[in-house]
Amino acid sequence: MTTKVVKGTLWTLAGLSVPIFFSLFATPIVTRLLGAESYGLFILVLLIPTYFNFADFGMNIASTKFGAGAYGEGSPEKEARVVRTAALIALIASLPFAIGIIAFSAPIVRIFNVPDHLFAEAAFALKLAAVGFVINCLATVFNTPELSRLRMDLNIMVTSGVRLLGVIATPIVIYLGGGVTGAVAVALSVSIITLAGHIIVSARLLPQLIGTTIDRDSVRPMLRFGSSLVIAGIAGVLLAQLEKVVLTRATSVETLAYYSVAATFAAMLTLFSASIVQSLMPAFSQLQGESNRPALNALYSRGIRSTLIWLVPAVVFMIFVGRPFFTYWFSADFGRESTFPFYITVAGLFFNVLAYFPYSAIMASGRSDIFAKIYWIELVPHIALVWVLAHWYGAAGAAAAWSIRVTLDAAILFWLAHRFGVRFDRGRILAFAAAALFMASPVVALAVWGHHPLVIASAVLAAVIYVFAVWRTVLKEEEIVWLKATVNRYRGQWTAHREEPVKEG
């Protein structure tokens, strides 16, 4: 199971990284073509429908949990009915919200302090985004057969392949005069093609998927599971996105652009954890029950340990490249306005990345109600904190409010997972803490002397020593054996492939 999860994670990571790599080139072009104000509007239009992510009634997660369970039982007919049932529930639940956004697009845009000369374009673009919202809800259900089989390669080829085309097409459409409306139309096209791709691929994996019947026995459990996700999702959307709304109201869409660029670049830290979660959810769902508890705990501990190992140097690297990246890749204005919010967001993301593991374990156990309770308890204090910090400190204050909240979330989720019997093996944690402190020490030198060549050299030296210390004192013997065996296996496959004689036609 560990091997399957790692393989699926690497596929997902590669698939997420490629579009982001191209985005690093495309986004500065888009910001220059649109300008900071129109780019902020583009972000806002795509952001508004995400406030209703709960409108699929939690079927994106429910379909994975129940579909993976049916697949583990060896029942393809039931798995197909589960997917169709989840898709029907998601469609019925999300349509009213999309219709409401379309009908009230003008008043919604007015709420967000959009300038008058961009008002009409924003209202029409929001209608397109609402249609894409429904299609995205269905796409995250119809990829269930791919996730249940841990075929992340197929899932990523569809999702990231189409997304990459969208990344490339967006600046072209804007350059040809499409503006914000054209950019949103590209996003809608990406959603439609992605849904079609998932249906085709999933039907190849699960031929029984093409049908009209639903699983009546699963309706009630799925609705019960989804209802908790809806309750949690309403609060979760506010918790995750509230600072952007408050920031726009308190300052301007231009400030939102500076904050969004900082948050987007910082979110690259979540790539690995977001990738592993897609594999962990079906894996944890198949390891429920006391007899499978040791295997679940081993997988849980390995995931957290491996994440900690790469996360520390990744955070140090991002801190070092933050200001030069924003200054030279975007503009001096972004370098000045986005750097400090970026640092604050990275600090919160360190804990947020680790929280993916207890989140997946709790969700796979079926306790979706836990998140509803946590998020609603946090909501009122978070609203007050965002309002105060965003008004006083602008983008940096919004970043601080978000980071404080996700750090608290991580602590609560780890505690709850431990209460549910999902345990993290803390062996050799002190050795890792010592290596991590040494790896992070060049950050202090950066704060004092800036990007001096000696400071950069000290960071490189610290990274080399960190890798050596992790290999010698942190990794367990069985993990080293597994790593060597995995590398040797893939090396052997690669060598055999290269030495295979070419057949003459």
Using brief descriptors, characterize the structure shown.
mainly alpha, 505 residues
Q: What is the residue-mean pLDDT, rounded to a whole number?
A: 83
Number of helices: 17
Principal-axes shape call: globular
Q: Which value, in Å, is the CA radius of gyration?
A: 23 Å
What order do the SSEs take from the amino end to the carboxyl end, as H and E? HHHHHHHHHHHHHHHHH
Q: Termini separation (Å)?
A: 40 Å
The figure for the number of domains is 1
Structural class call reads mainly alpha
Largest sheet: none
Proportion of beta-strand residues: under 5%
Please tally the β strands and state the result: 0
What does it look like?
The protein has about 500 residues and is mainly α. The chain has one domain. Helices cover about 85% and strands about 0% of the residues. The protein is globular.
What topology emerges from the helices and strands here?
Elements: H1 2-50, H2 59-72, H3 76-103, H4 105-111, H5 119-142, H6 144-148, H7 152-175, H8 179-205, H9 216-250, H10 253-266, H11 271-286, H12 293-330, H13 332-364, H14 369-419, H15 429-449, H16 453-474, H17 477-499
Helix pairs in contact: 1-5, 1-7, 1-8, 1-10, 1-11, 2-3, 2-5, 2-9, 2-11, 3-5, 3-9, 4-5, 5-8, 7-8, 9-10, 9-14, 10-13, 10-14, 11-13, 12-13, 12-15, 12-16, 13-14, 15-16
Gist of the model:
By secondary structure, this protein is mostly helical. It has helices at residues 2-50, 59-72, 76-103, 105-111, 119-142, 144-148, 152-175, 179-205, 216-250, 253-266, 271-286, 293-330, 332-364, 369-419, 429-449, 453-474, 477-499.
